Amino acid sequence: MATSVDAIHKSSDQINPDQMYVTKKSEYNVKVASDKRQTCYISGICSLPSGHTIVADYNNNRVKMFDKDYNLSSDLVVNCNPQDICTISPSEVAVTTVNNTYFKLIRVRNGKLDILNFTKLPHATLGISCHQEELYITSGTALYHYDLLGNLLKKLYEDTGGGITVYKCAFSPDGNWIYVTNFAQNKLITLATDGTLISTFTDPELQGPKGLHITPTGQVLVCGFYSHSVIQIDREGKKKMATLASQKDGISYPVSVYYNSNSHQIIVGVYANNKISVMEFALLEANTQQQHKAKNTKSFISWALVLQIECQKSEVNNVFKFYQLLEEGECDNGFVIPDQNAFLACNLRNSPDKNCARTDGHTDGWTDGRTDEAATICSPPKNLWLNACG
């Protein structure tokens, strides 16, 4: 199950500012009428600055483009099974294919997908990533560095230990690290840009790692195919930070993951499924040692999100009712309201958009008036509660 309050440190001062928490999950159909196979297999995902999401459908030999609402805009037959896809310019993507040794450049022109050219390489092509207008392509056992014309610049890394040991790859935002999934040995490895091995990560929730993506701020997202999980790993590639989705959340055999910078959503493609999962998330930011106002505001927002997560786990379908049950001691799920001076400062039973505060030191005595102290801690973002508990 996705990470909940049970995995959050007791003190909000210890919350990792990079840790992600899923607040809502939706599904969108990506099957089109002209598909030849019964099910889709979204093996790769990327997006364009225009807001379009482009996916590689391995089963149907197609690349499909969807608008910001995930309605089909265009699709293109690529004649062989597309394995991975990455953005290389505001209107171009690169695609690798399994059944031959080509990568293809596809452009968007007049709102339609069109093959620009293709380049034959001397090895198998699986994963692909673009960094500073250069391509990094995996073969299953090695990672290669190419320019956009298909000229080999360097073989960066190789592992011939058996099976698919070099599957998907991705760069850290600063360009200092390359992350690679080792499917055969259930590992995520982190490399320096010269191919030197920096670290190796394993975890029971990372069995058969496939899809891999790094957000613009450095969060590392990885799919565990056999463990039916999408997890977040720290920037150093050494420690699991959160389970973003699992089989209990409806995720089975995930193969691709992508953070869409346009919509600020995490998109997951799964094996033999006609739908993609789209997850909205939040970061539980740690309190700092700055001024009292900033500290209390972050504390309130963090625990408000914790309340939302706990509400989603319960059978109560309304966050305000859930809060009332907690307050009255009628909801025994082991969740304790923390930091009452900060957390109870807003009347959650009324309107989440209203700045309101209590005037005494107890859980009752609510008022629509605001005190100076409450004004520093009582202005959560209005959209914080919009998706709470359905």
TrEMBL record:
Give the transmembrane ranges. none
Q: Print the keywords alphabetically.
A: Repeat
The residue intervals holding the NHL repeats read: 34-69
Coiled-coil annotated spans: none
User: Per UniProt, what is one GO molecular function of this protein?
Assistant: ubiquitin protein ligase activity
One of this protein's GO BP terms? proteasome-mediated ubiquitin-dependent protein catabolic process
Name used for this protein in its record: Uncharacterized protein
Q: What organism does this protein naturally occur in?
A: Dreissena polymorpha
